[in-house]
Write a structure and sequence with these properties.
The complex is a heterodimer of chains A (247) and B (503). Chain A has 247 residues and is α/β, with parallel strands linked by helices. Chain A is built from 14 helices and 8 strands. Chain B is α/β, with parallel strands linked by helices. In chain B, β11 (461-462) and β12 form a beta hairpin. In chain B, α9 runs parallel beside α10. Classes of the chains: A alpha/beta (247), B alpha/beta (503). The interface between A and B is large, with 69 and 67 residues.
């Protein structure tokens, strides 16, 4: 299958290893990955901070880029992020309609219908849970809010992780509680965000895991930023990187 | 009836906010400032974490056992949407049926009108004391304070509401107004403020505390000539009012006094008696985590020789017509005040209800309060409420009437930035930064260059901290978290280096 990668703005600029790992997993499974070079951002930060006018421009750009990729033979779009896939699927058409652009809304819905978060693509579309990975580390998985409650990915990431050779997967207490990131919430309400982060970190530390993983680089940046500041020695690793690993 | 604006839907409400709500809906400082103080209160944090996690587990248990829960939520949402679509007609039907059954209906545009009506009604009975059933509507309008100013003592009879009243405190939760108090604190409040309490025999055992309150209240129930209540539902087709409660103290108030005055928000009307079937399943499971609440009282007008012989219904607008006219915000009026969203909210759990400033705290408060009072784009504390959420979505999952609170929060943020832009000639630094980011992200080449620029400043970060301190609000991040060092090469540059200019 030809799959267009939406690497996300954060993944492109700050966490390129997540994109590289996504490519590695999909190619190992025999699929072709294309990277539409004009892609930028889904606009979620603008939408969720109250700048819908700015966001609509980004929605239009995203739709143009990925409808072209789909027209050129890609059968699916994958994002290694529950949050960005959630933005495409649950916000793009709504933003276009609020801006009075019904045509864009319909085009956005067509792109959204082909857009998957990584674990959804692997389990639902490609029908695999064993991607041939090995990762001999103690790992705990944090289900991010938007994968869980917007996309409803359920236990798909865990199904994938369970098949990884050598992994010691330990359950996280109160796993479905938000880590406190919330985009600009983390700076606008930094104290409350930090209080939420403190509880998430103590749950992570209680697992005695070496690695905390999730399907969103943004939430991992938050959890990892706290774990690093406190010199806990626990490192954040994206789900895609574990699935790509053959150590 | 007076000329109450019943808010025929007409898109967003512009212009001078003559129709905004007044009452106990606005605090004295923005949410982040109030939250900071609450976050440092370890006793509050413990009380809230314990209470909300207990009630969360109870709710989850009794909801999971209902096979058609999702269908019930759909039904609840559909009934509310239908009600709001024909609110004027249903309210007039309710008025006609209450009147036909011997009640008197009053229409209050806002808190001041409602308080004046109720005060006048109590005065006309000659009573200088009333007993009260727990009611959010009367909290919203500050009725107790208005009555006190008129020389009338209002006694709260719901146990938690009584605790709050005795402590000269404010409620911090829709259902459990004293949720921020532990039982040792409650004992201290009773010892200091409850007349006739014996400090030596009063322990902090919940049963002992409840017994002390029972003695204190029982006398008042028997003495009271006037009771004041809210209403969970008002049935248009029959003129029936309904109050749902746990303690039975509400039942005492609703049956013993001669005069009963009920203050009901206009959105609490439901079309038909059979609609209660849906809500009486949704409400107790969502709020207290019980299959059925212990006391459900219903009454229609006046029944000779049975219960209050003088019944008044005060229909309260106080900003609701304004919310109804807001196409996006309208669904907030579906709320049945169950407080399930508070109990699952990670922000509420850590900050408590007082940080929100309004009698409506938590996720529903963060949307309902600014919808009722209006967003100013200035320095009104309620302008901060739509941002008091990480948009984690837990509230939407549990809402029994399917209010999409995260989507409403996002919409209110947009209305807030627009109101801010309308009010200020110069864009805020945030608006300017967002516009600049949108310009950069509007084009792949521009974004590629920006990504490379980020890589170039990677040496400006040492041990997770920027060498040059970040300006506010970005320093809110670095206060408690390290920042990642940008990579030497962006993903797209890696792709183009290793795969050619393939697209």
């Amino acid at each position: 299958m030809r799959i267009a990668l939406f690497v996300t703005c954060l993944g492109d600029v700050l966490f390129p290893d997540v994109g590289k790992a996504t490519v590695a997993v999909l190619e190992r499974l025999g699929h072709e990955v294309v990277f539409p070079a004009d892609q930028t951002c889904c606009g979620q930060m603008h939408t969720n901070t109250g700048y819908q006018g700015d966001a609509v421009g980004l929605v239009r750009h995203h739709v143009e880029v990925f409808e072209q990729a789909l027209a050129e033979g890609a059968e699916a779009v994958v994002a290694p992020s529950g949050s960005c896939a959630g933005s495409v699927r649950h916000q793009h058409a709504m933003l276009a309609r609020r801006a009075g652009d019904e045509r864009l809304a319909v085009r956005a819905e067509a792109v959204a219908a082909k857009t998957y978060e990584l674990s959804e693509l692997l389990v639902d579309v490609l029908g695999v849970t064993d991607v041939g990975a090995s990762y001999p580390h103690r790992v705990t998985y944090h289900p991010t809010c938007h994968s869980l409650r917007m996309l409803r990915v359920g236990d798909r990431p865990v199904q994938l992780l369970r098949q990884v050779r050598g992994i010691d997967l330990v359950e996280l207490a109160a796993a479905d509680s938000c880590c406190g990131f919330g985009g600009t919430f983390s700076v606008k309400n930094a104290d409350t965000s930090t209080a939420m982060l403190a509880d998430k970190m103590s749950a992570v530390l209680a697992t005695r895991a070496e690695v905390v993983t999730a399907g969103d680089a943004s939430c991992l940046m938050h959890i990892g930023g706290g774990l690093s500041r406190l010199r806990t020695g626990v490192r954040p690793v994206h789900l895609a990187e574990i699935l790509a690993s053959q150590s | 009836m007076t000329g109450v604006f019943l808010g025929m839907p007409s898109g967003r409400v512009p212009g001078p906010p003559a129709d905004v709500a007044v009452g106990q809906l606005t605090g004295d400082r923005p949410f982040p400032v109030a939250a900071r103080e609450a976050l440092g209160d370890s006793r509050l944090r413990r009380n809230l974490a314990h209470a909300t996690s207990t009630i969360r587990a109870k709710r989850a248990h009794v909801v999971d056992e209902v096979p058609d829960w999702e269908a019930l939520r759909e039904a609840g949402s559909a009934i509310k949407a239908d009600t709001l679509a024909r609110l004027p007609e249903l309210l007039e039907q309710l008025e006609a049926n209450v009147t036909a059954r011997g009640g008197v209906v009053h229409w209050a545009r806002d808190a001041a009108e409602a308080n004046a009506i109720v005060t006048g009604l109590v005065r006309s009975t000659g009573a200088d004391e009333v007993v009260k059933v727990k009611s959010m509507a009367t909290q919203e309008i500050g009725l107790n304070e208005a009555l006190e100013a008129a020389g009338i003592t209002a006694l709260e009879t719901d146990l938690a509401e009584l605790i709050v009243q005795l402590a000269d405190d404010r409620p911090s939760h829709i259902l459990v107004p004293a949720i921020h108090r532990g039982r040792a604190e409650i004992r201290d409040i009773f010892v200091r403020r409850m007349p006739g309490v014996d400090p030596d025999s009063l322990t902090d055992d919940p049963a002992v505390l409840a017994a002390a309150a029972r003695v204190h209240l029982r006398e008042a129930f028997l003495r009271a000539r006037v009771a004041i209540s809210g209403a969970n539902f008002g049935v248009a087709e029959t003129g029936t009012l309904a109050v749902v409660e746990s303690e039975g103290n509400g039942r005492m108030c609703l049956t013993l006094p001669e005069t009963l005055i009920t203050v009901m928000g206009i959105e609490k009307v439901v079309p038909a008696w059979t609609d209660l079937e849906v809500f009486l399943q949704l409400l107790p499971r969502s709020s207290t985590g019980e299959r059925m609440n212990p006391y459900t009282s219903t009454w229609a007008g006046v029944t000779a020789g049975d219960g209050p012989q003088d019944f008044h219904l005060v229909l309260l607008d106080n900003g609701r017509s304004r919310v109804l006219a807001d196409e996006a915000g309208r669904s907030a009026l579906h709320c049945i005040r169950c407080s399930a969203c508070l109990n699952v909210c990670p922000v509420y759990e850590r900050t408590g209800g007082h940080a929100y400033g309004s009698v409506y705290p938590g996720p529903i408060g963060a949307v309902l309060t600014p919808l009722l009072t209006g967003l100013t784009g200035g320095d009104d504390p309620n302008d901060s409420l739509p941002y008091a959420s990480s948009l984690c979505g837990a509230c939407y999952d549990v809402c029994p009437v399917k209010i999409n609170i995260p989507e409403l929060l996002v919409q209110l943020r947009a209305e807030h930035t627009e109101a801010h832009a309308d009010r200020h000639r110069i864009p805020s630094p945030e608006a300017a930064a967002m516009a600049a980011a949108a310009w950069v992200m509007g084009d792949g080449d521009r974004f590629a260059k920006a990504g490379r620029a980020a890589g170039a400043v990677r040496h400006g970060i040492r041990k997770g901290r920027p060498v040059l301190p970040l300006p506010p609000p970005l320093n809110g991040w670095t206060a408690s978290r390290d920042i990642p060092k940008p990579p030497a090469e962006t993903f797209r540059d890696w792709w183009s280096r290793t795969r050619g200019a393939d697209s």
